[in-house]
Request: fold
Amino acid sequence: MGLINKAITTLENGVEISNTYISIERLKIKKNLKVVDEQPDEVYGIYNKMTQHVSREKKYEDKPEIDSLSVDFGLAELPSTMEELYAKAYSEIKIFYPDTVDVIE
Reply:
């Protein structure tokens, strides 16, 4: 899965492009302990590194990324499947890139 970013992105050289490809490069899960009202509570930290490429094709040609961002979030419990975890991670990315379209690979 990935996302097509419909918004205009300005490259370092000033060129403006749209329809860039966003994908998750790394997803790490860490079990944390949080204290709420003096009660310990387990939460899972999800550490999500996403990258943006000129296009999906360029990503798979190993061309350099044009942007990257860490989008980290917490969950009280883990989803039951990896597909659900990735769907949640992509929904968190969409907070920063709201003008996107899902790409199913």
User: Anything to note?
Assistant: The longest strand covers residues 20-36. The helical segments are 56-60, 82-96. Residues 82-96 form the longest helix (15 residues). Residues 40 and 104 are 39 Å apart (CA to CA).
